[in-house]
Amino acid sequence: MKTCFWNLIGAVAALALSFSVASASPSKRYDATTKTCRSLTQENDLEGYKVFRRVCKECHNLTGEDGRFLYSESKGGNAWNRVFAEKYPKCAKTGAWDKLSLEDQLKLNDFLVRTGADAYDPHDAKDCG
Ligand code: HEC
Question: What is the CATH number that goes with domain 2-128?
Answer without folding.
Answer: 1.10.760
